[in-house]
């Protein structure tokens, strides 16, 4: 299984699993941070609202209280001191205070939230306006110099409303304190809730992080099939050539790295085992081919030696035939010298013609035998052609054997086929050699028959000489010449030239066969060298495979 197949089955690579788990954890912490920031913002907003709604209102209430007290003090100064110069100043201060109080009262009425505070603000505004009008009336009475009337105005128009205003201010102050305390408690409760939620969320994120880490680790370990150190040990054993240790995985881990390593180890072990078996077979085939090639080379050497002997014999036979031709020429010259004597003994020759006819018949037989000898010589040429074709095929097969030795394919089966063909051709070559020997024997037998026929002719000539004893002295003078003619010219002259030509042709063909046989021997030597090199390569291959422990 390839890594791409594993990735396709598992869906995500280890890198993306780690990145995804890290992203989830970071996103969770970002979410927690955002939640805490939001809660802090809410708390800040609540604090601002608490200040705006409670403490700011209380500050305004205290401001109204202080300004009213100052205005009341100024009126008391007007009554007690009665300085006409200071009264306008105090009046001006009171009017300024009234303006500020008007703004504060209006602000309280506008900011009030809830029914109780709103009612108090409205009540405060109503009572204040009446108190303000009374204090202005009282100031006007004081300015007129009627102190008693000012006291009456104060008692009737100012004091009743002043008591109600200060009571309302006190009520609003207490209400503000109560509301501030309540909001403070709510803020504490919100802070406690936020702290609890933050702690719970943190614990949840930590728990999720632990779970995601465990799941990611388990997923990675599952994808690997075990601890990385175990995978390293397996691959280290394979790298060191130890393929004997079995690699097992749990059910469901068929897509793991360990399972893929196990499959790789098993396939590698089977491949190396096949290579080892093939190298052994190749070595055996190479040794057999070497043996067969050595036998073929030895046979071809013997064949070459026998061809050398045959060529030498044929060469000697050619020399003998040439010697016979020279003798035939000498006989022809002798026949010329006997012509004159033959004319003188013509009468006696008629009596010997019958015997000469018999001699002619025997000579015809001899001629037939010599013709058979020539035919057999031609058969020798055919056999030599066969030998030449076999030698060419032997050369081609030797070349094929060299090519097969170079390729060294499929456990050397090609070498076995080539070796068989070489052995078959060598056998046929031996048969052809035997056929040549048989034909040569037939030639020798024919020659012996020719010799016997010549002996028979000699006897007939002797009879002819006995018949011709009564011939005149001229036949006696040609007796010697006629004997030489009968012994040499009639038997040898007709066949000597043809036999010499055939002998030279046979000698040339034997030389060609010897050269082809020498080439075949050289090719066999090359084939033997190639088979030895093939055997060495098979041994080297076995040595390489032996570095691995397969069982």
From TrEMBL:
InterPro entries: Chemotax_Me-accpt_rcpt (IPR004090), HlyB_4HB_MCP (IPR024478), MCPsignal_dom (IPR004089). Its main location: membrane. It holds the Pfam family 4HB_MCP_1. GO terms for molecular function: transmembrane signaling receptor activity. It is found in: Cell membrane. GO terms for biological process: chemotaxis; signal transduction. It is a multi-pass membrane protein. Keywords: Cell membrane, Chemotaxis, Membrane, Methylation, Transducer, Transmembrane, Transmembrane helix. Residues 278-514 form the Methyl-accepting transducer domain. The chain crosses the membrane at residues 18-38, 193-215. GO terms for cellular component: plasma membrane. PROSITE patterns: CHEMOTAXIS_TRANSDUC_2. Belongs to the methyl-accepting chemotaxis (MCP) protein family. This is Methyl-accepting chemotaxis protein.
């Amino acid at each position: 299984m390839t890594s791409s197949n594993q990735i396709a089955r598992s869906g995500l690579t280890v890198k993306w699993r780690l990145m995804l788990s890290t992203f989830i954890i970071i996103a969770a912490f970002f979410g927690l941070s955002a939640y805490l920031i939001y809660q802090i913002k809410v708390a800040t907003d609540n604090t601002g609202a608490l200040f705006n709604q409670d403490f700011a209102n209380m500050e305004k209430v205290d401001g109204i209280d202080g300004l009213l007290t100052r205005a009341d003090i100024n009126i008391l100064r007007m009554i007690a001191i009665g300085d006409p110069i200071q009264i306008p100043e105090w009046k001006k201060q009171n009017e300024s205070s009234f303006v500020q109080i008007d703004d504060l009262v209006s602000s309280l009425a506008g900011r009030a939230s809830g029914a109780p505070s709103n009612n108090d603000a409205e009540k405060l505004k109503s009572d204040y306006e009446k108190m303000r009008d009374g204090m202005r009336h009282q100031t006007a009475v004081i300015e007129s110099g009627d102190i008693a009337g000012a006291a009456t105005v104060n008692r009737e128009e100012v004091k009743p409303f002043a008591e109600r205003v200060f009571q309302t201010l006190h009520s609003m102050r207490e209400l503000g304190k109560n509301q501030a305390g309540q909001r403070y408690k709510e803020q504490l409760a919100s802070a406690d809730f936020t702290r609890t939620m933050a702690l719970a969320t943190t614990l949840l994120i930590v728990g999720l992080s632990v779970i995601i880490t465990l799941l990611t680790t388990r997923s990675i370990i599952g994808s690997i099939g075990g601890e990385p150190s175990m995978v390293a040990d397996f691959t280290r054993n394979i790298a060191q050539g130890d393929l004997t240790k079995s690699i097992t995985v749990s059910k469901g881990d068929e897509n793991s790295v360990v399972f893929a390593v196990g499959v790789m180890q098993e396939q590698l072990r089977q491949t190396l085992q096949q290579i080892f078996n093939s190298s052994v077979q190749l070595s055996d085939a190479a040794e057999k081919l070497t043996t067969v090639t050595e036998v073929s080379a030895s046979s071809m050497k013997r064949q070459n030696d026998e061809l050398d002997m045959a060529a030498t014999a044929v060469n000697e036979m050619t020399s003998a035939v040439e010697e016979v031709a020279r003798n035939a020429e000498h006989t022809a010259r002798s026949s010329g010298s006997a012509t004159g004597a033959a004319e003188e003994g013509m009468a006696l020759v008629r009596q010997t013609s019958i015997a000469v006819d018999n001699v002619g018949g025997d000579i015809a037989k001899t001629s037939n035998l010599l013709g058979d000898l020539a035919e057999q010589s031609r058969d020798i040429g055919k056999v030599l052609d066969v030998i030449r074709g076999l030698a060419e095929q032997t050369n081609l097969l030797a070349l094929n054997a060299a090519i097969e030795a170079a390729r060294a394919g499929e456990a050397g089966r090609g070498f076995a086929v080539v070796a068989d063909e070489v052995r078959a051709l060598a056998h046929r070559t031996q048969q052809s050699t035997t056929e040549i020997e048989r034909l040569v024997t037939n030639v020798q037998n024919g020659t012996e028959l020719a010799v016997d026929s010549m002996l028979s002719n000699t006897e007939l000539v002797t009879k002819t000489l006995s018949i011709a004893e009564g011939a005149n002295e001229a036949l006696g003078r040609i007796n010697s010449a006629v004997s030489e003619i009968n012994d040499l010219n009639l038997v040898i002259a007709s066949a000597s030239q043809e036999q010499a030509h055939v002998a030279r042709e046979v000698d040339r063909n034997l030389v060609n066969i010897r050269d082809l046989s020498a080439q075949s021997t050289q090719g066999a030597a090359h084939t033997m060298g190639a088979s030895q090199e093939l055997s060495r390569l098979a041994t080297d291959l076995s040595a390489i495979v032996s570095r691995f422990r397969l069982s």
